């Protein structure tokens, strides 16, 4: 028995060392791709792209709104040369998984479709977005006014085009490093990736994804940028028995993201069905939903995050608000939330086009912006 214990311990340590080595190799590849991109920039572009790591204003300068409504830091793809665009996309494909890169590209393609066809669809189409960003207090922080910070000029949001796949911005907080923490931001309309890297560890929270249209046709193929998030959660809801479903479905309507842009640090109480009340198959289905967000990052970083989610599973909740009669292959019109000790996921259809305009949010209340990685 003692020998078996020793062998098991050795195997676990070996696996841990292997995963750690993989994560280190991922960081090496990401830093190399980041440095290669930065090397393509002019001095003026580089000044606009690189911020101090402790620049709290830039860290929070993300939104669901188009960049013509809420300004972003950094430079966008439209302002880059072909070689710079290629280097930027090489960096993104290095730090993201194939699934994550596909999702980013489909969100950008949806913005092209919205630019071309949005005004034809009626409510929610074509015009300038109205009202506050999701979460109620979104958009740039109050200090984002005039003046010039370490990452270039702030001030009024830019005018011009609102929609399009080239209106997505890239910026860095800190210098890409194998050992010191730094941050990569990439985003625009319906997308905000905040990726903090510290040595072998990579953190994706907070991250916002979404789409309008959330279903469209491109080259004869139906595209649903956040479709799996809809289908997998619906399948989980349908797998619950009546008693479980009664616990999961909230008695009130949730209209939008609760912890969207501008809601950093806000706490909410967990609601719904606790995973400890699910059977093994249902728990696996819940983790499969979570993987649609955790799996956006390259696999070694994502694996560490999923291990944390499995450890927290029995203290994780699944809550649903809205219609329960959805069909796979079409986007649900209901809100849902998955919440655990280190996790909040929200899926929030929008009232103008509930099945075709979706916002989602992915947070770790204990580690947004990699805050837990920075503690001594």
Automatic annotation (TrEMBL):
Organism: Terriglobus roseus
Pfam family of the protein (one): DUF3500
Ranges annotated as spanning the membrane: none
Region of interest called Disordered, as start-end residue ranges on this chain: 109-160
Bias kind Pro residues: ranges: 130-143
Name of the protein in question: DUF3500 domain-containing protein
Comp. bias intervals (Gly residues): 144-154
Signal peptide location: 1-21
Keywords tagged on the record: Signal
InterPro entries associated with the record: DUF3500 (IPR021889)
PANTHER family in the record: DUF3500 DOMAIN-CONTAINING PROTEIN (PTHR37489)
């Amino acid at each position: 028995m003692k020998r078996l214990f020793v062998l098991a311990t050795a195997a676990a340590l070996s696996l841990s060392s292997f995963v750690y080595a993989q994560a280190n190799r991922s960081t090496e590849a990401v830093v190399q791709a980041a440095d290669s991109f930065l090397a393509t920039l002019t001095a003026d572009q580089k000044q606009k792209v690189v911020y101090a790591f402790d620049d709290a204003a830039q860290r929070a300068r993300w939104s669901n709104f188009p960049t013509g409504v809420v300004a972003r830091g950094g430079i966008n793809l439209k302002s880059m040369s072909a070689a710079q665009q290629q280097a930027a996309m090489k960096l993104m494909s290095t730090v993201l998984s194939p699934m994550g890169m596909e999702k980013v590209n489909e969100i950008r393609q949806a913005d092209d479709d919205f630019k071309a066809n949005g005004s034809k669809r009626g409510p929610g189409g074509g015009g300038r977005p109205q009202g506050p960003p999701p979460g109620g207090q979104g958009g740039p922080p109050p200090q984002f006014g005039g003046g010039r910070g370490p990452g270039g000029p702030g001030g009024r949001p830019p005018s011009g085009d609102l929609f399009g796949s080239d209106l997505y911005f890239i910026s860095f907080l800190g210098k890409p490093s194998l050992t010191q923490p730094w941050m990569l931001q990439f985003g625009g309309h319906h997308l905000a990736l905040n990726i903090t890297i510290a040595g072998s560890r990579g953190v994706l929270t907070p991250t916002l994804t979404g789409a309008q249209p959330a279903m469209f046709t491109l080259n004869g193929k139906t595209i649903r940028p956040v479709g799996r998030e809809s289908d997998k959660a619906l399948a989980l809801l349908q797998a619950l028995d009546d008693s479980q479903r009664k616990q999961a479905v909230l008695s009130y309507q949730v209209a939008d993201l609760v912890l969207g842009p501008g809601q950093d640090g806000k706490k909410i109480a967990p609601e719904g069905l606790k995973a400890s009340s699910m059977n093994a198959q249902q728990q696996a289905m819940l983790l499969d939903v979570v993987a649609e967000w955790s799996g956006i990052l390259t696999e070694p970083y994502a694996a560490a995050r999923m291990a944390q989610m499995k450890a927290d599973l029995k203290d994780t909740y699944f809550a649903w608000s809205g219609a329960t009669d959805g069909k796979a292959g079409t986007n649900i019109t209901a809100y849902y939330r998955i919440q655990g000790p280190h996790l909040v996921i929200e899926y929030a259809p929008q009232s103008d086009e509930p099945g075709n305009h979706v916002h989602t949010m992915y947070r770790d209340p204990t580690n947004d912006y990699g805050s837990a990685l920075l503690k001594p």
